[in-house]
Every structure is written in C-alpha cells, then in structure tokens.
C-alpha cells in the first residue's frame, strides 16, 4: 500500500505535489491548534481565573475574620447534654470550677447554681455564653459582694430558653 501511494504521489506534477504537501501541513497545524493548544489555553485560563477568585476570597476572609469569629460566638450550639452537665462543663471552661458550690436540678427543668467567691467578670461572661450559645437563660439571680475584691457570691436559677 505504501508503494502504491509513493508511486501515485510521484506521478503527480510538481505543482500538485506542492499543493498536496501544503494542505497536509495546514491540516496538521489545524489539528495541533484545535486539538491541543486551544483546550490547553482554555484550561490554563480557567485555572488562572479560579486562582484569582480564591485569592480574593482569602483576602476577604482575612479582612472579615474578626467579624466572622464574633458572629460564631453568637451562634447557638444545639446541645443534647442535660442542663446540669452543660452548666458544670461550661463553668469549668470559664474558670469557675473552684467557685462552684452546688448545682441542683428542679422538677420543672430549672437548675439552681450556687457560686462562692466567683470572679465577677468570669461570671458575667459565663452567663452570657450559656444564654447566647446554649439557650440557658437566667430565670433569677441573687448576687452579693464577695469577701475579696472583684469576687461575688451568687445564686442563679437557669432554664432552657426554648422551654426544653
């Protein structure tokens, strides 16, 4: 078959051979451009666009990180923990474990908490965290000045804000 093509090609006039070779080169270039270079260019362009968008997203996240973190602190965390366990755990996290003198559940779903010599600032942050993040609201509170500066003795009654 190859010999038949060579003899056919040799039988053509010089001008016909030049046109045929030029056409074959043109087809090869079109296949190269259309089949390889254009798809590769499109992929590179898409990757560059995606990279630029990701850099913009990262810059936005860095610029808004404080606001995002502050918003996350206000998001309620659904908790299946009993209120008693939640109060004990969060009191320890807030540094109030040493001040915690007792927790007593009541039959109505409320929890009474007694604290002695609790740092006032830590107590206020703990109360806010329980309310904002876990939906435990303060039903009643009695606060007396502690024996040391900056401390208080408190009796707090908590109830689930959603009534659970």
Report on this structure:
This protein has 164 residues and is α+β, with helices and mostly antiparallel strands. It is 59% helix and 21% strand. It contains four helices and four strands. The protein has helices at 2-10, 14-74, 83-93, 120-134; strands spanning 100-105, 111-119, 136-145, 151-160. The chain has a four-stranded antiparallel β-sheet with strand order 1-2-4-3, covered by helices on one side. Strand 1 (100-105) and strand 2 (111-119) form a beta hairpin. The longest helix is centred in the first third of the chain and has 61 residues, at 14-74. The chain is rod-shaped and about 115 Å long.
Descriptive key words:
21% strand; 4-stranded antiparallel sheet; 164 residues; 4 helices; alpha+beta
Q: What is the overall silhouette?
A: rod-shaped
Task: Indicate the mean pLDDT.
Answer: 88
Q: What's the story with the biggest beta sheet?
A: 4 strands, antiparallel
Strand residue content: 15-25%
Instruction: Give the radius of gyration.
Output: 38 Å
Binned, the helix content reads 55-70%
- What is the overall number of helices? 4
Number of strands: 4
Uncertain spans, ≥5 residues at pLDDT below 50?
A: none
Give the ordered list of helices and strands: HHHEEHEE
Strand order across the largest sheet: 1-2-4-3
Classification by helices and strands: alpha+beta
Oligomer: single chain
Distance between the termini: 88 Å
């Amino acid at each position: 078959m190859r010999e038949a093509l060579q003899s056919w090609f040799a039988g053509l006039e010089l001008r016909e051979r030049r046109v045929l070779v030029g056409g074959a080169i043109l087809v090869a270039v079109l296949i190269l451009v259309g089949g390889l270079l254009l798809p590769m260019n499109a992929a590179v362009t898409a990757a560059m666009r995606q990279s630029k968008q990701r850099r913009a997203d990262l810059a936005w996240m860095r610029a808004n990180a404080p606001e995002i973190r502050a918003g996350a602190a206000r998001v309620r965390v659904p908790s299946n923990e009993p209120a008693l366990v939640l109060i004990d755990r969060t009191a320890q996290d807030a540094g109030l474990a040493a001040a915690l003198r007792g927790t007593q559940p009541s039959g109505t779903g409320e929890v009474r908490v007694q604290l002695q010599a609790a740092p006032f600032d830590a107590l206020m942050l703990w109360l806010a965290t329980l309310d904002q993040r876990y939906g435990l609201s303060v039903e009643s509170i009695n606060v007396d000045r502690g024996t040391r500066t900056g401390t208080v003795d408190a009796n707090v009654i908590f109830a689930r804000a959603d009534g659970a």
